Amino acid sequence: QVHLEESGGGLVQPGESLRLSCTASGGDFTINLMEWHRQVPGKKRESVAFITRGNTRNLQPSAKGRWTVSVDNAKNTWYLQMNNLQPEDTAIYYCALDYHTAADSRPRHAWGQGTQVTVSS
Predict the structure, then answer these.
(1) Hey, CA dihedral for 43, 114, 33, 101, is it positive or negative?
(2) What is the pLDDT of residue 97?
(3) φ, ψ of residue 41 in degrees (nearest 5)
(4) Banded pLDDT at 37 (limits 50, 70, 90)
C-alpha cells in the first residue's frame, strides 16, 4: 500500500507564497498520475493540478500564471508552488496518486492526509 506524506501548508498573507510537497513511499510501484486537489468545508473537493508520468502538466484556470506543478522523480515527490496566494485559495489541499504495483497492474489510487492553507491579512 502506497503512503503519501504531505507538507508545506500554513498561514500566509495575500500575495505571499507557499510550496506544498507530497512524497510517495511503500513497495514497488509505478506512478501514472500525480495530483493536487483542494476542498473548502461544505464544498466539493476540486482538482487543482496534475502531472503525468510523461510530464504533461495541467493547472486549474484560476491557478495559471500563479502556480506551478513539478516533480522530482528520483524522490517520488511532487510539488505545488503557489505564488500570489489570495484569500479564495484558502482550503485543505490534498495530494493524490494514481499508480500500479509490480505485482498487480490494476490501477490504484492513494490520497495524502491533507494540509491546511490559509490566506488572510
Answers:
(1) negative
(2) 97
(3) -50, 130
(4) very high
Identify which of 110, 98, 77, 96 has the alpha carbon closest to the alpha carbon of residue 31: 98
Angle at 69 between CA 66 and CA 92, to 5 degrees: 80
Buried-exposed string 69-90: b where 16+ CB fall within 10 A, e elsewhere:
bebeeeebbbbbbbeebeeebb
- Which cell is 45 given? 473537493
Contacts 24+ apart (CB under 8 A), 53-61: none
Using alpha carbons only, what angle is made at residue 55 by residues 53 and 56, rounded to the nearest 5 degrees?
110
pLDDT tens string 49-87: 999 999 999 999 999 999 999 999 999 999 999 999 999
